[in-house]
Amino acid sequence: MELSFSKPLPDAGLDLESARRVLDLERQGLKALADALDSSFSEALDLLSGMSGHVVVTGMGKSGHVGRKIAATLASTGTPALFVHPAEASHGDLGMIRRGDVILALSNSGETEELADLVDYAKRFEIPLIAATAEAASALAAAANVVLVLPASDEACPMGLAPTTSTTVMMALGDALAVAMLERKGFSPDDFHALHPGGKLGRRLLKVSDIMHGGDELPLVPVDTLMADALLVMTAKSFGSVGVVAGDGHLEGIITDGDLRRHMNAGILDMRTDEVMSPGPKTIRPDALASEALRLMNERAITNLFVVSDRLPVGIVHIHDCLRAGVA
């Protein structure tokens, strides 16, 4: 059967009024959630922190769609997680749930029939169950080890039927769990990069050490080298600069095209590097983000930076390296 709808004339003012009403109701729902959080939230985190397996997120209908997102967010922030559809669970997918897992069941009413087999399975095999529901007196809440009660909120749907505010609040609760777990674990940018090697996030988290040039590519000369020899190294390495190192290997200075222009005269080839170099050059750590290197080069209008660890030059990074890697 094809549904027919009456089509009132478009009214931009009414459209904006509708959108703002939706956003205001959902904002109120989020505030109510923040105000309602209590010790049960920490109890849920204790269960998640102590598990040896996965967070098994489950839910039916719109709660299921939210559950898939929560599982993905947990997994991408260092908490192993997967989504199990409750109807499929009753037809074999219960085998995906094992001792050591924790189940996070989402149901606004707490009376979702399709969750029954999964809840029974959890009780039978002593798998901890966290319930996220708006009904503290529901069957799901009664079966759970920890209940995260969602505050009563008006749905943004004018008929009060379509899950809108309730799903927004449920998703925000999942985000809160994921981020709180991230902070409990001390999840670092390195950990995040390991789980997000591709795409824009991966590029933003690249380290200088990932893109720098090292070893034989480094343009370095001793502090008392004649400029004639230093120029040969500078030309051969093709970075437009050469680093000047002391006897202990520490980076003492740098010679760039600008330094050459400032000292240009007939006797420059007979000068020593310590007479031409700019002492105390700007450097960067190998564990710094590549985006930081790009920012420094842009701010100082330079094209490369020596990468230094304990004052010892271990690499050099050129602005083109950042651009080629997609760092911007």
Please, could you describe this protein's structure?
The chain is α/β, with parallel strands linked by helices and 328 residues long. The chain folds into 2 domains: 168 residues, Glucose-6-phosphate isomerase like protein, domain 1 (Rossmann fold, 3-Layer(aba) Sandwich); 117 residues, CBS-domain (Roll), CATH 3.10.580. The protein contains 15 helices and 12 strands. The strands form 3 sheets. The chain has a 5-stranded parallel sheet with strand order 2-1-3-4-5, with helices on both faces. Helix 1 crosses helix 7. The radius of gyration is 30 Å and the shape is elongated. The mean pLDDT is 89.
Instruction: Please give the count of helices.
Output: 15
Number of domains: 2
Number of strands: 12
Q: What is the global morphology?
A: elongated
Helix/strand/pairing category: alpha/beta
Main beta sheet strand tally, sense and closure: 5 strands, parallel
| CATH homologous superfamily heading of the largest domain | Glucose-6-phosphate isomerase like protein, domain 1
Strand fraction band?
A: 15-25%
| Cα-to-Cα separation, first versus last residue | 52 Å
* Secondary-structure element string: HHEHEHEHEHEHHHHEHEEHHEEHEEH
Q: Strand arrangement, largest sheet?
A: 2-1-3-4-5
The CATH class of the largest domain: Alpha Beta
The averaged pLDDT comes out at 89
Low-confidence stretches: none
